[in-house]
Amino acid sequence: MTRIAILGADGATGREVVRHGVRAGWDVVAIDRALPGQTDRVEGVVYREANVMKGGLDDLMKGCDAVISTLGVAFSPSNALSPPPLYTEGTTNIVDGMERAGIDRIAVISAAFVTDQPNLPLWFKLTVVPALHNILEQMRDMEAQLEKRPNLKWTAVRPGWLIDKPASGALLVEDEFLPTEAFRCRIGDLGAFLIECLQDDRYVRRKPAIGAREDEKFEGPGALGAEFAGL
């Protein structure tokens, strides 16, 4: 049985990864800056508390075969202007801890929009992507940092525009660029795919872009406005 450490395990995507990891029959170590309440924990999962920005993660990950980082910066005006360095410094601290713990496999969350995506709707390219510029720059730096580690077996998953829905099982995957007409990605499908990445060596040192087709009501400017209004 494989033992995995999940960083950011109590976030929306992290919780999905924990559930899918358990369903896959893996031992799961869930790590976040605060422990969830007893009623929010998954049976059989080991929960540990840590702040990735402070480092010192090797003891918490020791004995694991692989790591999944679901670290992410939520969109807000302040984060758009000056995002905290979770993707850069946080990922560096994770990988440094992995090296000390003897772990060489990691999957992280990036974003499809770190590179020009020819299949994006024009309105999305002209509005959302520029607003995410500073956050996307950090993701690019994170990917570059991973590429510079020759002994690290990394995967940088590039989801499309995330939607808070359970897995549909209809996920489409292409190398680096989103599949045609599939620029949204369900958080449930992202969680399942991160687990899949660790089960399949074809994603080592790759940047798979993932998304799925959704109803039109979830793909237009109106959906974006409704989601931002709920922030």
UniProtKB/TrEMBL annotation:
GO molecular function terms listed in the Swiss-Prot or TrEMBL record: biliverdin reductase [NAD(P)H] activity; riboflavin reductase (NADPH) activity
Highest taxon in the source lineage: Bacteria
Alphabetic keyword roster: Plasmid
Tagged with keyword S-adenosyl-L-methionine: no
Pfam annotation, one family: NAD_binding_10
Domain named NAD(P)-binding: residues: 8-200
Protein name: NAD(P)H-binding protein
